[in-house]
Amino acid sequence: MIRINVNLNELDELHTTLVSTHDKMTATNNQIYTNLSKLNTMWNDPNTPVFLNQLIVDKEEIDNYTQNTKKTCDTILEFTNDLVNIAIRCNCTTNSNFTYNSDNINYLINYCNSTQRLIDKAANQLSSMDIPGSFRYASALHNMRSKLSDMNNSLITDINDLNEVTHLTNAAYNKIKSFPVSEPLILKPITYTSSLQNIELVSSKSIVDDSIAKQNLNANISNVEYKEGPTNFNNTSVNQVAGNKTTNYDEHTNTFINAVNQKTASGSLTIDEPKMTFQNTSVNQTASQNQNNFETEKTNFQNQSAPQTANAVENNFETNNQSISKSSKQTAGQSNINIENTNYNINNFQSQTANNSNNNFQMSNNYSVNTSKEAQTNSADMPFSDQPINLNTSKEYSANNSNLDFNMTNNFENTSKAYDTTNSNINLNTNNQFENTSKEFNIDDINSNL
Amino acid sequence: MTAEIRRYQVLLSNLNNLANTIQASINELESAVTYSKISLNIGSTNYKQSDLEEMLYELKNEYSNLVNVYIPEVRRKINELIEEQRRIEAARRAAEEAKKKEAEKKAKENDKN
Asked: Chain B contacts of A112, Cβ < 8 Å?
């Protein structure tokens, strides 16, 4: 059953209102999109592209929705026009109610049909009826027959009208009934890419990417965390005060030749010092890296004397003090060899018979130690001046358990094979006691700041 | 005479049938009018109601005429015709009676003679 109960005037007003609403919504949607699209940057927030893309999607959603509502408006207008046409067809007013019941009108049509059939029958009966001419109402009966024919014809027309109106009304109803219902407008919430749900200024407590940090931010802005890239910060000279200092000690060739030894040609103590490079890599050093290159070129301390048996000889070289260590083998006394400015104490070897001999070496740049066996320095002052002094420390000279005191300007480490400083105490006086004021003993560039 | 009476009697029968037919149509038409009031209403106008009601009115009139006028007239006519026929018949019989009596009287006279 189809029921229609509308007011054609109100239906027309509804259509007008919907059209107006649709137009306003379309204009508003366009305006919103146009204005918001101008936001092409929001403080370099990474959510800006997300927002703009969402804006485009939303605009399309709203456009689709408004298009559907427009179709709905058109359908309502069409329905209204259909009913108005029916009203015109029925010779009725077109701005008031329209009530329709399909079941009832079907009954109406059925009754009209049955009426029509009966009336037609009656008319036929009259037509076939033998009416005597003398009958008083013979003409009346003829008129009745005409009237019944007219009724029949009217009913047929009415039935046709009713059928047509029913068809039109049912069609109009079915047409608007079959129009798809518009889906409600639902805009999906924006899904931001970052964990931030709110758009905040960069200068706030936001975590900024490196790229952004490099772009605009001042490193001095507080509350900004910088994720710096891998930075290699190598402080290799925390303790360094100054730059590397290179202290080159270029010793000239110092040949300390024991004149005595030369004489004796034996029993000279030769100390062959190879090139020694001194590098201060110790952390404990308070000064910067110092490269003390002691190039004791050809600092030959040669004891040309016979092989020494200077084992377990304690050689004390002290610039300040003189100490004399006796070897076990020493049989001789001590011989103090005083070298001015560089007091070197030389042990007396066994062979040394320079007991209690003081050897004063005037350090021009020569100082010599005669510790050869054959050296007889007993009570002999051997002034050595300007003579090379050779201190020969042969292999046989084991400095083990020997105390070697080097009073030098720098810490001096002799790592020569011939000079085994293992288990040796090397007292290195950093005092620059090693001063060569002689001409022949030139130690250039003595810069020792230890 | 008899034929005419017969005719009117047929007419009467037909008219009675006609009355029944019209009566039935009236019933149907009245139902139609009733449904026309609740089927399609546009602007306080029930579609086809007036037309049907008008038809119904005419139909009822026709029926009323038929039943109240035409058929009685036929009956009256029939009665009249019957009466006429009876009268005629009676007159004929009277005439025959009189003729018979006349004949008998003559016969008696002849017999007297």
From this structure: 29, 32, 48, 52
Residue with more model confidence, A416 or A204:
A204
The residue of B28, B42, B80 whose CB has the most chain A CBs within 10 angstroms, and thus the best one to mutate to test that interface, is: B42
Which residues, 6 or more positions from A253, have their beta carbon under 8 angstroms from its beta carbon?
A297, A298, A299
Question: Tokens for A85?
Answer: 């046409």
Name the domain count of chain B: 1
Q: What is the mean pLDDT of chain A?
A: 60
| Model pLDDT, residue B6 | 87
Q: Where are the alpha helices (DSSP H) in A232-344?
A: 259-264
The dihedrals phi and psi of B46, each to the nearest 5 degrees, come to -85, 125
The C-alpha atoms of residue B100 and residue A407 are separated, in whole angstroms, by: 213
Q: Are residues A253 and A159 both part of a single domain?
A: no
Judge: A86–B42 Cβ closer than 8 Å, yes or no.
yes
**Which runs of E-coded beta strand occur in A230-362?**
245-251, 255-257, 272-273, 276-280, 290-296, 299-302, 335-339, 357-362
- DSSP bridge partners of A272: A300
**Cβ within 8 Å, pair B48-A161:** yes
- Picking from A15-19, A23-27, A266-270, which range would have the lowest pLDDT averaged per residue? A266-270
Phi then psi dihedrals of residue A378, to 5 deg: -60, 125
Of A90, A101, A83, nearest to A11 (Cα)?
A83
Within this chain, do residues A263 and A158 fall inside the same structural domain, yes or no? no
Cβ pair A119:B73 closer than 8 A = no
Kindly report the nearest CA distance between residue B68 and chain A, in angstroms.
Answer: 12
A168 and A280 share one domain: no
- Supply the range of the domain harboring residue B106: 2-112
- Whether the per-residue pLDDT at A391 is higher than 90: the answer is no
Whether residue A47 is found in the same domain as residue A165: yes
Average pLDDT on A341-358 reads 35
